[in-house]
Each structure stands twice: as structure tokens, then as C-alpha cells.
Give the backbone structure.
Amino acid sequence: MSTNTVLFAFGLTVIAGLATGIGSLLALFTRSTNTKFLSAALGFSAGVMIYVSFVEILPEADNSLSLALGKGSGPWATFAAFIGGIILIALIDRLVPAAENPHEITKVEELHQKAPKKKQMMRTGLLTAMAIAIHNFPEGLATFVSAIQDPSLGVAITVAIAIHNIPEGIAVSAPVFFATGDRKKAFWLSFLSGLAEPLGAIVGFLFLMRFVNDLVFGVLFAMVAGIMVFIALDELLPAAREYGEEHISIYGAIAGMIVMGVSLLLLN
């Protein structure tokens, strides 16, 4: 792989991770949540992830593993790696306490209405930032691996992950701001929590890319598909519905699939 490809893939993970800063700005400078927009956006992100996982990523993984292991064992290895990706992200999700889970939905106006103790709010903000870092690490690896294999696919995944990082930024910055009264500190903590995405890319490059072959790429790609499907079904679609716009979230998901399908056809 060329240096330009690596830098491009790494740049995409930075963009995806730092989208938490957008959520931070929404929490600090708005008084209410645009539920229709967030519901559609999160649904759109889920649609993109589901479509690319089953239409692009899994077939690529199956092709690589079939070349490495043969047409008999390859599909079984693809399936096993896909389930392995689901189990990995599910375990990470279970390790994060529900109270600090960044995927527990919070509206901006609800945060402004709360007036708990400052120490409790600061603890919530810090723990949420840690939770986001834990969640974002495998997402960064997924974005990086996808962009290395197919830059256009990497762009699509970056957009989807960036959208789903916006509510996470709200979850970090609002409690820190109410605990400290410092908008800059709240913004930067939220902003920096997204750096776990490029950190995942760095780890992937240093420890995995040196062993690049059909087997490694196949396993990684299948695991990426599992991670993406789990995020879409367990986090994005439920989150979109909890904002109170059930039909809009599904319309957003369908729109995401349509846009993703058309763009891939045009690029191929």
C-alpha cells in the first residue's frame, strides 16, 4: 500500500472521531434538540452501515478468505469473523456502565434543565468521555481498514460514523460545562475523546498492517462488517427512535441505503 493511501485512511479516522466536537457545540450553544434532524441523520447512518456491511464488506471478506483458505473453508471463516466482530463490540458495550454509556440518549434541553451537584456532573462527563474513547477505538480500526482496502468505502463509513458521533459529543460536553462553567474545557474534553478513532487506526497500522495478506484482510473485513451491523442495530436505530421520530428514522435508513447504493454503482 502507498503512503498516500495510509495517510488518506488515517485522515478519515480523524474526521470521524472529531465529529464529537459538533455535538459538543450543539450542547453548549443551543437550547433544544432538533429531534427530526437527529432521527433522520442517525437512521441515515444506520442505513449506510448496514448496506455497505452486507453488500460490499462481507463479499470482499469472503473473496479474500476464499483465496486464502479455499472455497470450502473461506465462507465459514467469513461467518466466524463476522460473528466475532459482533461479539467484540458487544462485550465492549457491556463493559460500559449504562449511566455513562454515550449511547444512552440525552436531549440538549434535558441537560439544561438538570441541576445536580457539580462533582457528580464532572464525574459523569469524565466517565462518558472514557466510555466514548472505548467505543471509538474499534470504530477507528474499522474505518482505517475499510479505507485502506477501498477509499470510496472508507469515505462512506466515515460519514456514517461521524453522524453517530454527534450525540456522543453532547453527552460529554454538557455535564462538564455545568460542572465547571467553562465552555472551552467542555468542548476540548469532548473534542479529545474522539481521538480514540485515529488511535485505533494507528494501532491497526502498527500491529496489523505489517501482516497484510488475504487471510488478515479477510478476517479484519468480516469483523468490521460485524462491528458496523451491531452499531447500526444496537445503537443507531434505537437511538433514532428514542428521539421520538420513529418513521423518520426508518426513512433516513432507507435513504442511507439508496445513497450508498447509487454512489457505489457510480464509482464502480
